[in-house]
Amino acid sequence: MPAIKTEHLSYVYSPGTPFEKTAVDDVNVEIESGEFVGVIGHTGSGKSTLIQHFNGLLEPTAGKVYIDGEDLWADKSRLRDFRFKVGLVFQYPEYQLFEDTVYKDISFGPRNMGMSEEEIHKSVMDAAAFVGLKEKHMEKSPFELSGGQKRRVAIAGVIAMNPKVLILDEPTAGLDPKGRDRILGQIREYHQQVGNTVLLVSHSMEDIARYSKKVLVMNQSRLFMYADVAEVFEHADQIAAMGLSVPQITRIFHRLSAEGYPVRRNIYDMQRAKDEILRLLSERGKA
Amino acid sequence: MLRDITIGQYFPGKSVIHRLDSRVKIILVVAYIVMLFLATNPSGLAVGILFLVLTYGISGIPYKMILKSLKPVVPIILFTGVLNMFFMDGEIIFQWGFIKIAKEGVLLAITMTIRIICLIAGTSLLTYTTSPIALTDAIERLLSPLKRLKVPVHELAMMMTIALRFIPTLIEETDKIMAAQKARGADLESGNLMQRAKALIPILIPLFVSAFRRADELALAMECRCYHGGEGRTRMKQLHLRYYDFVASGFVLACILAVVAINLLVPPLF
């Protein structure tokens, strides 16, 4: 059973006014449980609007959203359960911190779920461990921490709810390369250990290629494609035309293919590039 | 949901009324209000109503917007109307115990109600057709004589401009924070008054923190660009009087004269 499924999902902002805008247009997608999915699209392509449907923050203008096979909007009183099931980390999540200690802030979600004190303590400490927060940070005020630490506190605040699906909207925006690799590495580790579904929204094809198995590409409010990373990179030209940056390696191989070399076009990392060039050279040697 | 709140009710358009100099518009609205209070009989008020019909027509603002602008002041209109009805002596047309209503009272109530409605609709036309920034600009220019009395006119106008500039930003920010806390299971819709007030803490604290941060950043950015108050400051958008500003002023003047003439020719109602 897919963890998330949408049927003809559409969403229109400010319908009936001069500012009317279709942000999501007839999206049909099925995301299997346990998948690590990269969500990519240009600014304004509708990806942020799309993910806000997955935990019921936005109600579809048309179409349906199913979480674990259940219609999200069938019973509005159960919406909160779905919000705990699908954890959503917004862009710049550090701006949502409000408690006087890190511990209390991370425990906000679990407390809303009505967990017992012991359960709360356990999920808070587990979540803090996942994002590399130490014991000494827990009693500090979140406002004393550095930018990267604040962000990790905010991410821990969602992980602590033990969601079955974790969605992160550009969790690395505004971080330096070191902080970016650290957070993405921790998310990958979390995915591998817990085995739940993770959706990672990003601008960077390179990050997505490195961390996710499947990619969901949004373009101009529509679903452009949902497929394996390699398959998506076959269409690197179209993706570049959407204004997204394609990894340099992929660009080189597309160029080679255009020049008439018989290379595969779905190359997106060093290892594959090396194998492909060696294959090509050895075939030439034989000929 | 928060997005739907319109603050400043500017209704973009290209009509002559939109293009009028905002200073002139403010003065003309004041003149229009004076005219409404000069009018002491139904024909005079009719001029006021016709004026509205005409100007809304020219501006392209839908007439139903008048109703929208009246909605918040309905209690005030009813209150003044009813009060005026009871406290006027004259030909009694209704009596019940100590409550008596005179014919003059009813007439006064009707004229007062029409006056207030016209007043609100007229001032709303100003805010419908003038962007908030143009309004603060005009207020600064109109109040500039007060600078001699050491009133910080420029600073007041700058504060208004900045406040207006940041309203949409703060609304957007509030929306985002609300969504983020809802995603963490914050319950904003149910519970009693105390619980609801408490549920606002996770929204208000981040909002204040970010408002202060923004204020700091803005102050720094303004200082970096050598902002030092209004002295010697020139403006990118100069306000110029054009021929239609004079036409509009002439028209309002004519309306006022018409009302005065009607007052002289037709005996007042009471």
TrEMBL record, chain A:
Organism: Harryflintia acetispora
Role description: ATP-binding (A) component of a common energy-coupling factor (ECF) ABC-transporter complex.
PROSITE patterns: ABC_TRANSPORTER_1, ABC_TRANSPORTER_2
UniProt-recorded name of the protein: Energy-coupling factor transporter ATP-binding protein EcfA2
Enzyme type, top EC level: translocase
E.C. number(s) listed in UniProt: 7.-.-.-
UniProt entry keywords in alphabetical sequence: ATP-binding, Cell membrane, Membrane, Nucleotide-binding, Translocase, Transport
Stored PANTHER family: ENERGY-COUPLING FACTOR TRANSPORTER ATP-BINDING PROTEIN ECFA2 (PTHR43553:SF27), HEAVY METAL TRANSPORTER (PTHR43553)
Membrane topology: Peripheral membrane protein
Domain of life: Bacteria
Native organism taxonomy: Bacteria, Bacillati, Bacillota, Clostridia, Eubacteriales
Localization, UniProt: Cell membrane
Oligomeric form and interacting partners: Forms a stable energy-coupling factor (ECF) transporter complex composed of 2 membrane-embedded substrate-binding proteins (S component), 2 ATP-binding proteins (A component) and 2 transmembrane proteins (T component).
GO cellular component: ATP-binding cassette (ABC) transporter complex
Main localization category: membrane
Recorded family membership: Belongs to the ABC transporter superfamily. Energy-coupling factor EcfA family.
InterPro entries in the record: AAA+_ATPase, ABC_transporter-like_ATP-bd, ABC_transporter-like_CS, ABC_transpr_CbiO/EcfA_su, ECF_ABC_transporter_ATP-bd, EcfA2, P-loop_NTPase
TrEMBL record, chain B:
Transmembrane segments annotated in the record for this chain: 26-53, 73-94, 106-131, 243-266
InterPro entries from the UniProt entry: ABC/ECF_trnsptr_transmembrane (IPR003339), ECF_transporter_component (IPR051611), EcfT (IPR024919)
Compartment(s) where it occurs, according to its Swiss-Prot or TrEMBL record: Cell membrane
GO molecular function (one): transmembrane transporter activity
CDD domains in the record: EcfT (cd16914)
Topology of this chain in the membrane: Multi-pass membrane protein
Keyword Transport: yes
UniProt key word Membrane: yes
Pfam families reported in the protein's UniProt record: CbiQ
Gene Ontology cellular-component annotations: plasma membrane
Keywords assigned: Cell membrane, Membrane, Transmembrane, Transmembrane helix, Transport
Superkingdom of the source species: Bacteria
Predominant place of localization: membrane
Assembly mode: Forms a stable energy-coupling factor (ECF) transporter complex composed of 2 membrane-embedded substrate-binding proteins (S component), 2 ATP-binding proteins (A component) and 2 transmembrane proteins (T component).
Assigned protein family: Belongs to the energy-coupling factor EcfT family.
Function (record text): Transmembrane (T) component of an energy-coupling factor (ECF) ABC-transporter complex. Unlike classic ABC transporters this ECF transporter provides the energy necessary to transport a number of different substrates.
Entry-linked HAMAP family: EcfT
Protein name: Energy-coupling factor transporter transmembrane protein EcfT
Gene from which the chain derives: ecfT
